[in-house]
From TrEMBL:
One Gene Ontology molecular-function label: peptidase activity
Keyword Transmembrane attributed: no
Name assigned to this protein: Peptidase A1 domain-containing protein
Signal sequence interval, chain numbering: 1-27
Entry-linked SUPFAM superfamilies: Acid proteases
Annotated Peptidase A1 domain residues: 91-286
Family: Belongs to the peptidase A1 family.
Pfam family, one: TAXi_N
Matching InterPro entries: PEPTIDASE_A1 (IPR033121), Peptidase_aspartic_dom_sf (IPR021109), Plant_Aspart_Prot_A1 (IPR051708), TAXi_N (IPR032861)
Annotated Gene3D superfamilies: Acid Proteases
GO BP: proteolysis
Organism: Castilleja foliolosa
Amino acid sequence: MFVSGQSSTRFVIVLIIIIFLNSPAAALTQYSDPPPILVTKLVHYLTLDSPFYDDYFSNKSARDISLFDLHTNIAQMPFETRLTARPTGGFLVHIKVGSKSFDQFVYMDTGSGLLWINCEPCGHNVPYPIFYPPDSTTFRKENCSLGFCPATGSVKVECKDKGTCTYTARYAGDDFSTGYLARDSITFQGSDEILQQVTFGCARATSGLKVNGMLGLSNNPISLISQMHVSKFGYCIGNISDYKYLYHMLTIGDEIELLGLSQNSPPGRVPATAARLPSQSFRSTD
């Protein structure tokens, strides 16, 4: 399939392919046989598919907010930037966590390096649904001796009493998420692949982040990208002027082909205008 970037006053397609031109950060756990490419929908915060949908916002408001996010969060954005999950904009990824496939909508953030979700018990004003670890038979707390504790990067990870591996992730505007590291299965909506024993953050307290969680996509050793041992991901933003548009897309995998890559492109920032994805990778995400 061939996808190209184009824009007009009423319809915008933005395709971003991120390639870690240096080798991806070494993952601190062993993960075997990742899917060749993972494809899932992106859900805009204000669309009908979003659990945070509010009909107070007009079609024009959704478009203006999305354009602001695209310009501030994508253009010339270095990795490991401390970003804020704005409560009225951005894109969510629908994942299922644990043995009972608990639904979570996590905010996609290319500037941070940790997947985390809110876990019971947690602080006040946390949006539902909230993951309850005892309900999952495959849930395990991350032990201090299992590799990720301590870890370096934008996420502070350290070993606490009773062998608990804790984390603190900070974002712009003094927003933060803090809790402990754990492991469980993760499935992306629309994918048949179950990612086993993924390390993620179980948040016990957050500030200013009105989301179920965050999907950090940088090449930090603790990120999902590094755990999967892949070096590429991409996302396609479609008709952001229509809050009913449901075809935004996120892809993760080394089989994404970048077309027309300039040799002068700086590492980590690729001004892609087109990409080819394996046709067999596309499945219905309904």
